[in-house]
Each structure stands twice: as C-alpha cells, then as structure tokens.
Automatic annotation (TrEMBL):
Keywords: Membrane, Mitochondrion, Mitochondrion inner membrane, Repeat, Transmembrane, Transmembrane helix, Transport. This is Mitochondrial carrier protein. The chain crosses the membrane at residues 12-32, 76-99, 119-143. One of its GO terms (molecular function) is ADP transmembrane transporter activity. One of its GO terms (cellular component) is mitochondrial inner membrane. It is a multi-pass membrane protein. PANTHER family: MITOCHONDRIAL THIAMINE PYROPHOSPHATE CARRIER 1-RELATED (PTHR45939:SF1), PEROXISOMAL MEMBRANE PROTEIN PMP34-RELATED (PTHR45939). InterPro entries: MCP, MCP_dom_sf, MCP_transmembrane, Mito/Peroxisomal_Carrier. It comes from the Eukaryota.
Amino acid sequence: MGAQSKPEIPPWGRAAAGAAGAVLANALVYPLDIVKTRLQVQVRLDESAPGADDEPHYASTWDAVKRIVADDGIRGLYMGMNGSLIGVASTNFAYFYWYTLARSFYLKSSSLPALSPSTAVELSLGAVAGALAQLFTIPVAVVTTRQQTAKGNECKSLMATAREVVDGPDGVTGLWRGLKASLVLVVNPAITYGAYERLSSIFFPVESKLKPWQAFLLGALSKALATIVTQPLIVAKVGLQSKPPRTRSGKPFKSFIEVMKFIVKHEGALGLFKGIGPQIFKGFLVQGILMMTKERVELLLILFLRYLQATRRAQLQRVAGLASTVSQKALASTRPGL
C-alpha cells in the first residue's frame, strides 16, 4: 500500500481477524439488525386491504423496539441471533480470505507493486471477493431473515426454518433466494472496504498500523457511504428473502426488480429507503467496531507469528549447536593418541 505497508499476514489470518471483528460487532448491536429488518420488510397497505390488520406497521425505530418488546419480550430483539452470527462469521471469513488473496495476487502481478491499487481496482477486488463469499454463505442469510421477520410464537430453530424454506415452492433453491440481488450488493462491501483503504491512505498515509479510534472512524465512515448508495437494493434483498406480504397470497417475489416495483407502487419511491436510519446507525457501529477489532486481532496475530518464528529459530540454533558439539566430540575421539 505504498507508504502504508502493512506487515505480512497470511490470508487465513486476515480472514479470521475479520470474522472475529464481525461477530463481536454484530453481537453488540444485534437488536438494531432486528429493527432495521422489520422496518425494511413491512409494506404500508390500505387499511381496507385484506389482511391489513394482521400486518404490523412500525412508525419509527423506537416504535419498532417498543412493540417488539411488548409482543415478544426482550428475547424478541434477539430472535435468529445464532444463525445471524454464524452467517456473519462465515461471510466475513470468506470475504476477507478471497479479498486478501485477490489483492496479493494483483500486487504481485502489477508492474508497479510499490503503488497502492487505484480506487477502481480496490472496488473490483472487493466485488470479486464479495461475489465468491455470497455464493457460499447466502443460505444462512435467507434462514436468518426468515427468523428475524417471524412473530415470536412462529419463530423456529435454524434447522427447522431451513427445512421450511426447502419445503416451500422453490425447494432447495429457496435457500439461494435473493442471490442475484446479493451479487449486485457486493458493491456494498466493495465500496466499504475500497473506501476504507482509500481513506486510510489519504488521512493516515504514514501509519503502518492504525490506532483503534482511527480504524473505527474509517470503518464507520466507509460503511455509511456504502449504505446510502445501496439502500434500495438492501431493502429489495430483504423483501426477497422474507415471507411475501399477505396481499400476495403467499406468492413469493421473483426478482429484486419486482420487489422494488411493489414497494414503489404501495409506498412511493421513498419506500426504497425505509429503515435507512437504523441501517446506517447499525452499519456505523458494526463497521467501526469490526475494523477496530480486526486491526487489533491482526496485530496480536503478527506478534504471535513472530513469537513462533523466534521460538523456531531458537530451537534450530540449539539443535545446530548440539549437532556441532557432538560432531566436535566425535572428531576429537578419532584423533590418534587421544
């Protein structure tokens, strides 16, 4: 990265650090995830429409929190948390693993490896890594979204929800619902981490390792930017992966374009940005904590790897010294007259 050369860490190390940071961050702010998902999946319908009375409608983030707690208790703010954290860990591990590999390959093959990749290259590398990560981890996201949007008495376990999805009209392919939207949404982490790398080189060009507050600030700002740009796609993806509104008589959406048209028809264009408040706030906190934790875990990993290397060198030196002593004694014992 030019002036900001980071110590070398293997891809699995950066992946483990990213996954650890993501799990910690998402566990801390999980209730916000429930609230933003509920806000994004709800559809404002005419009160005279069939089934309209059965559809909960939250007026704001705080209204959603109060009504979820009133209906399902505090545990309602943590429904689907286990599956969500599994999905977060697997997605971020896969993303950072592929991103590190792709970036290392680019730097090694570049004719000017000393220079930082351009913004366009950073975004492209992030998009490739995000697409590969989504292919392997989207089933967990589908199941988690179903859990988060279920009523308290209807919420099932991770495996039971997965079976419900498979038994639905789409069969096993239902676990990959929203894949196209997810692949389009790889621009979100691409923008996030591309902006993070670019802002890091702009604001802190001489730092070899960022301080916790620096990593938090850059992570939060980059995520807020990515969220504003991609919010309509995020809303459409949630609509695809959750149960369809009752007005559709159980008929699932076929594409994120269909979801967006449905939302615009019933709620206007601003409906595509519903839930953006908790989405940005959650992303601000999660990405800030994630990158701060990731930088610390990477530093600990560097120190641990250096310790292992020093220990191995010391062991090799002892073995070499012992072999030298044995060989000298053997040589001395073969000399005549001794």
